[in-house]
Structure formats: structure tokens, C-alpha cells
Amino acid sequence: MEYILWNRNEYYQIYNCTGINVNDIPIEKRQYPIAAIICIILGLIYYPLYFPCIYSFWKNKLKNPCYILLIYLSLLDICLLWIPTIAMGILSLNGVEYCSSPFIVYFIGCAVLWCSECIADLNLGINRCIELSFPKISKILFYNKRVYIWIILCNLYGLYWIIFHHPTIFSGIEFGFVFDPLDGYKPYRSEFFNKDVLSVSLNNTILALASPTIYFLFIIFLFFKARELSNRITKEELMVFIQVFIISMLNTLAGIVNSYEFIYEVHNDISIMIAHFSWLHIHGFPPVIYLLLNKTVRTDTKKIFNKLIKIINNKIKPTNTNTIKDYF
């Protein structure tokens, strides 16, 4: 975004499509129809699952600040999930490249808030580990609306990436996002994007190292304080911790895979699909985890469905109960 706002000369150098004919690369090489259809279907499946989860988190937000962080993380996922599912599916089916739809592709690239997701995930992991290990410190850091400071920091970090870095651009050839909008049509212009690749790799490396380190330290603490913690930790807290741990590991795995792809410029179909679907599932799979492992979410979801069924039944139920005999 920086390059649109106040660095127009470089913007025109990087994003100028003059002399580019999209059809120089056949449309068949810019499409992944099976993967695209799967992405769209997964998006349509995952999206509805989020809403009962957020409703449940909202109901219980006063119990613990982790529910506020879960709401924030879920909203981030909702804001991001349409990109690797519906958007990429439609773009891929149509063989879209940057120069065929520059505004749409650039806008979608700016909407990729991967780094906000990373830092929010780390915050949630820190919250859970400190909450279970050092509850007094947790109250100082997260309670009494201090949790919103952490959320603001996540937003500022994401805003920094939007404003001061090149957005990643969808490439139909790669079935993924790359920094160079003319990827496949011109040789890679490393002079423009080395800083971005380094920054993304650093972000993903920090995620890949920090997240396991946090949980490893917690496990060590748990080993020495097992008896004390077993008397203090409720089953609900333990299950929330397990959910957060699984989500963090998914994010870590996606960060490692995408860093590997960026650094080593791997372009075979298998690595492309692994990278993409690992990214897709860190935004789409969390509600499945919540519904499977969180009894509170399951209970609230059942209540919602029961209410919906009653409403539907009341609308379907005929209001006029007169029989033929009543008219004679």
C-alpha cells in the first residue's frame, strides 16, 4: 500500500502491465480447476461453522479474557477465509493473473492479514500458558480490559504490513500468492522484493520458533508442578488450552511450509498444494476444533439449532386447522 500512497514511481515500475499479454501463457496453465472447486466447497462448509462458535465465545467472554482473544482470532479468520477459498477458487477457475484484473488482484493481496493472524495466535498461546501457570501474572496482563491492548498491538502489526510492504499478489500459474505481480511473464525482480521475502521469512520463523518454545516451557513447568496444577485447573480450562495448542501448531506448520516455499522458490504442484491447503485450514479448521473439543460451544450450538428448528416448524405449521366438515 505504501507504493500507492507515496511511492508512485516504484509502483509504476513494479505493477506496470505495459507490453504484457496475459494469453502468452495458455489459460490451461493458469488454472487448477479441481483444487479451485475444492477450495470453494471448503469455504462454504467452514464459514457457517464459525457463527455458533463466536456466539458461544461472546456469551462466555466475561468468564475469561481468552474468550475475547478467541473472538478476535475468529473474526480475523472470517475476514481472511474468503481469500484462500472462494476468491482463489474463482480466480483460478478463470485463469486470472495480475494483468488481467489488476485492481481486484491487488485489493485481495492487501487484504491478506497473515501477520496479524500470527501475532494473535502467539498472544493466545501466551495467554493460555500464563493463565494456567501463573494466574496472578495473567490477571495483571490480560484482565480488566487489558486484553484489548494485545488486540490493538495485533492490529497495529497488521497495519504496518499493509502500509509498508508490497502486498502478495495472486498468481494463477502458481495457484498462490507471490510478491512479483508479473511472475511468469518476466524474470523475477529480486531487487524489489528481497526485503519483503526476508520480512515474511523472519515473521514465519519467529512464529515457528516462538510458538513451540512457549508450549515447551509450559510443559516443563507442568512437569514440575503437576500436582499443584491438577488441583487448580478445571477441565474446561484444560480443553481450551488443548484447542489453542492445536491451532497454534497448525499456524506454525503453515508458517514453516510457506517460508520454505518463499525462500527456496519451490514451484512443483505438490508443494504448491501443501502450502495452499495448510494456509486455508489454519483459517477454516478452528471451528471444527472448537465444536469437537469444546463442550460449551457444542451446547450453545445445539441450543441455536433447536431454536432455529422451532422457528422453522412454527412457520411451516398451518395456521388454519379447519377441516372440510367445519364448512358444512
UniProtKB/TrEMBL annotation:
Q: Which UniProt keywords are given for this protein, alphabetically ordered? A: Membrane, Transmembrane, Transmembrane helix
User: Is the Transmembrane keyword given for this protein?
Assistant: yes
InterPro entries assigned = 7TM_GPCR_serpentine_rcpt_Srt (IPR019425)
Membrane spanning segments where? 32-55, 67-91, 103-126, 147-164, 206-226, 238-258, 270-293
Gene3D superfamilies per the record? Rhodopsin 7-helix transmembrane proteins
Protein name per the record: Serpentine receptor class gamma
Source organism of the structure: Meloidogyne graminicola
Q: What is the lineage of its organism?
A: Eukaryota, Metazoa, Ecdysozoa, Nematoda, Chromadorea
